[in-house]
UniProtKB/TrEMBL annotation, chains A, B, C, D:
Stated name of the protein: Argininosuccinate synthase
Domain Arginosuccinate synthase-like N-terminal: 6-169
Species annotation: Euphydryas editha (Edith's checkerspot)
GO cellular component, one term: cytoplasm
EC number: 6.3.4.5
Enzyme class: ligase
Length: 413, 413, 413, 413
């Protein structure tokens, strides 16, 4: 009888390598799926390793453009910030990878999808909710939540022993005392020595960005252009005649990562609330993402009507939660995304920004679709404004306050 | 017949000096009221000037402690940020000054209050709504909104001519080509050459903070402690034996301003939406306020329950609008403030922060009232957590998504 | 020299008749504009009266279809209810009339628009904000806010005297001791003897609906169908062979008004908050509107995803305020309306409803686009649901609660 | 060895009787806990039945006062309505019962709590989240979610067979083809023949309220008084000299239930969204609750400031979800409840209401703490209001709209 086929989200690391072997032992055919979303990884080596362990096949798929265009940049456009600080670099990647692996599963006629995410984390949720949305009849096997598996592998040493026994190569370099998730948008660090929020993090942890003392001593000034809220190009002045203009989304992000990295942009060290109700401490570095968010926020405030801005802000905070919690493909996220895109119709223009010593400083902004009216606001020009009107405006606003004051003797405040 | 008494909010500048004279010409008795809220000003000189012009009396009142304790620090506690960026330094000062001037008006039996705020700005609204709340039967005279006044004084040159004619001293140093509002929390800059949001602001504009290239080359690390969300002390390590601990609110803010200033902390250049419906560009520097906001936000996320945090966030955004728009003494602001204070019951603890090159970097935080549970979140300890439960949690969350996917063939997304 | 042309929103009543005369005396050419939005009015008589007084021309425009299709029914679709009770019958009519009068003003080259709305009410705001949105360069003359006018006409007797002196016909029937606004959607009653919220309203006030003791003794059961949230047809069973189906929007509303009227549907007596900050008491009767709102709400809850419903609810409450306050043509209302329409994509189906003795009772509902899944929810069928999953779901939701309970000893509650 | 002690939430019905027996067979000591929250039940008979089956002890606790005072009336005060229609009669009862059973469990030194709620419903969640909040170390056994149990008892016939085999009395009267939850606040009906939302419900289903044709032919008019949002007394005029005044909370609710029942008040037939993501159809009758909600809403709108009302509304919608989902003892619900109570400080006064033919009609309201100002709103009295101010108010509000209109040529709308 033919074996059931499983697609395993494979990273090449110890956990998923052991899971691969374990699934084969369970009598499954296993195809490994490796998504390239910009992490610094030797994909050939990972592929060989999986084949060595016994994978029926190994798929390596370059999803970098897909990730940048359909997840990261819309995340900027929508202004997604989780709990006021986190730009959702991991949360945005999960649905992207899920599309890749579900497509593979359907193509190959697989019955199951498996992954190495653990039982306390967000990623299992994001991954599985995306899979179930994309493939309602699909089934997910999460070994780290199966007693049979997690009772057998109670610590890293159990995994190493299992690996050695089954000729699975184990990296000679000792594992960092924290865990990491990396893609073209960001790297996150958590667990291990980082679990105590009162302990200052060790030096040398960050990889995309330089420490402030090591950053460049000359600021970088550049122009970032947006169309309907989406970053469309960056322009970097150069000593030569012509400025460098980059409009390929992937190259744009890579360039901003490089500049941001040189200037130490986009690090945060926070305690956040996981969807499961646990609090965890995470460190993130998001160089390009930070530059794009800061500039987008500036252009948006410049272009949008005041009240539309407030409605958009409400929806954006909701959407950040949806995305963090893994609901990218939910009805509410699909709906909210449409509404947020609608809000960005006039967020078109250019922001001039200086990148220096960890700071993203907006210097100027321009837009043909901004509601800003220089004459109207000018102290030197009437601009069609009648100052007497302000008296009526204030007096009418005071009607309610006076009533309340008389009523409650608020004057004692 | 006795003349009617007016209390004039007096700054010593050209506008309010001319208004003072104009009111006297209108046959009022005028008492000048100068609030010291930490602005860099020669109060004696201003007093003499007012007396010279003909003020019946001049009151100089030191409201710095009042401002810090009852407005600035509660603003931190409530997390007030207008349109995601502005810490409301001016908006918080207006109700404080209004209390001072209304109390003076009542004490002296005045019939009117007058001020030099212009007709397009926010401050007239904040000032008058506060006055009317505190003194519903009071009356405000705003010369810049009276045709008789604004038609006569159509530009700065008209004021200067009037001043010269009436022996009002005019400062020899030319006025900066922008206007400024200053207090212990911040300095704002707007108008004049800043009115074009596309023009990069000139060098040398900022006064509280150094430019990044001029900042100290060694970071300053300090501990900031909060009780129920209010900053209560800062602790600065020193080379000597004992760290410096400051818990006097005013001294705390002054010290943080000094440190923040040396490290270039807290500058923003934004376009904001005024209450009157105009967009304006403003520059702000808020050194101590920025350090306190960043650390408070960190401690709050660490201490508070996830869902309480979201409710608080909603109320905080509302409150920021109320304060910006001048509704500090409104029923909705009084109510919201109580709710926000309730949310801070457990926001008690200490944040360790590094101040360096324009960056406020949280390094660590501790709290006895945080809901953070290291064992619960640990990757190495079960901590009472059953991974199997996550499967049920995910599956139930997927019920709705699968229905929707089946229904709408969302898989095409 | 040619006189300036004013378009006056004319009702035929005493106020606007005197205003018409007064404007003519002020040396304007006045064209009267009468919108037929379904009020019970003799338009020919009103026209003749205006001509008699001296109107240069009188335009009577039938806006009933326009009002029903573009304002009333979208108000149902969006679920607009002000302060939980008022269906906005007047608020929705103002922008509709404004379009009519502004188009007339532009067509005729008028310089001004005038109206008889008073200074404390909402309608002046709704009317003028709509006019200024549609015609930013237009000017509005509101006599009831001009001291010259309101000082001269301090009460109804002044108007009557003026009318008599200028041969303006004054109705012989005494004015009702309250004021009324009527259109095809509703009639409102306020002011006069209704101003005291503690006084029970007199009998015989309502005109569209019967008092409960006078209502029909047999219920009326009918089907109402919606497409994307918009009512598209009603089906009334009859004794004859075929049920009566009405899909013309105007006829549909008229029929529901008739049925609702016979059964005493849709009266409310409330105190509401006006935009100007005053509280006022209003009585409303909205027969068709009430039937449509109740049935739409039912279908929407049946069809929509749970979380989309909550987002829509938030936006709907915002939109109700926008519309009440006169901001129909504002950027925020235009934006919110688009979002609300997006939310209704799947609100298609039919609701069976019984109309009887003041009650609109939903009996059943059906929809091909509802997310309701009978098998899934059935107590008798598993329907793909695993009860064990609920355990995990509950346990994970309890993680946060247990932490909080341990932390705060919530058990004392 | 001593057996482990379980407290079983016992109803006397077939399900919990079988569960009782099954738990005894599983070698537990079982104490049955019956909460009297106003359901129509023979508690003595239920007690005898449990003893007969083998319960170690049976506790019958009268929680009616507790339920009315600490859950139902605060639910009115907070204005809790789920998805715009459901007054949460069942949701409010669960935490109340949970307090009772947890107290019993702690008192008796029990290790487990068990219940008969099923795996698809809300009540398991409400019950268990409450238990875990009150008793974080407690454990819950939910047989209907254990495969061992639900595989054995796949339908009602399996339960009946088991009951017969073990001499458990089975009611001779056939079970209604739907399930019911009853307490002093309401009765709910769901499942069975009600599962198809397109089927009109059979006659004779409701028990607390009469069908409209059977209701009294004379209206009942009464006064309901509130203090800080809580109902404190009702006054019913009588033919005799003195009106009947009831201020005991339990008697007040019982009386209103009786009046409401005679007049057919408070029935709804809705499709709602369960916390687990399923949609279900439910019928509810809530006579007293409906009368109290309608009158509270009226008084609240009369008394509260406009903007406070909006903040309260937001929090109230959140709280309704918290309560429906079982989070009564959560940090967010405890916090929100405090905020909502704060909002009610001035909601004190009396509403006169007519109860007739299914309608709760507010006739008048009075309050010493209302912000309503009759002079201010009067059309006949200036009341300190300057109509000219409205011009400025409108013009300033139009500034933003005109900008937008010029910008977007909104005139095409």
């Amino acid at each position: 009888m033919a074996k059931d086929l499983i697609i395993l989200a494979y990273s090449g690391g110890l956990d998923t390598s052991c899971i691969l072997k374990w699934l084969i032992q369970k009598n499954y055919d296993v195809v490994c799926y490796i998504a390239d979303i910009g992490q610094n990884e030797d994909f050939d080596k990972a592929k060989q390793k999986a084949e060595l362990i016994g994978a029926k096949d190994v798929i390596v798929e370059d999803l970098r453009k897909e990730f940048v265009i359909n997840y990261m940049l819309p995340g900027i456009q929508m202004g997604l910030v989780y709990e006021s600080r986190y730009y959702l670099g991991t949360s945005l990647a999960r649905p992207c990878i899920s599309v890749g692996i579900v497509n593979a599963a359907k193509r190959l006629g697989a019955k199951y999808i498996s992954h190495g995410a653990t039982g306390k984390g967000n990623d299992q949720v994001r991954f599985e909710l995306s899979v179930y949305s994309l493939w309602p009849d699909g089934k997910v096997i999460a070994p780290w939540r199966l007693p049979e598996f997690f009772n057998r592998f109670q610590g890293r040493s159990d995994l190493i022993e299992f690996a050695k026994r089954h000729n699975i190569p184990v990296s000679a370099t000792p594992k960092a005392p924290w865990s990491t998730d990396e893609n073209i948008m960001h790297i996150s660090y958590e667990s291990g020595v980082l679990e105590d929020p009162g302990v200052i993090t060790p030096n040398g942890i960050y990889k995309m960005t330089r420490d402030l003392p090591e950053t460049d001593n000359y600021p970088c000034t550049l122009d970032i252009s947006f169309e309907k809220g989406l970053p469309i190009s960056i322009k970097i002045p150069s000593d030569q005649e012509k400025a460098l203009v980059i409009s390929d989304p992937l190259a744009m992000v890579q360039t901003l990562n490089k500049i941001g990295g040189q200037h130490g942009i986009g690090r945060i060290d926070i305690v956040e609330n996981r969807f499961l109700g646990l609090k965890s401490r995470g460190l993130y570095e998001t160089p390009a993402g930070t530059i794009l968010h800061v500039t987008h926020l500036d252009l948006e405030a410049y272009a949008l009507d005041k009240e539309v801005l407030r409605l958009k802000k409400y929806l954006q905070d909701k959407m950040a939660d949806f995305v963090y919690n893994g609901f990218w493909f939910s009805p509410e996220a699909i709906y909210t995304r449409k509404c947020l895109e609608l809000s960005q119709e006039s967020v078109t223009g250019t922001v001039t920004v200086q990148i220096f010593k960890g700071n993203v400083t907006v210097l100027a902004r321009s837009s043909n679709t901004s509601l800003y009216n220089k004459d109207l606001v000018s102290m030197d020009i009437a601009g069609g404004f009648s100052p007497e009107d302000s008296t009526g405006f204030i007096n009418i606003n005071a009607v309610r306050l006076k009533e309340y004051a008389r009523f409650s003797a608020v004057t004692k405040f």
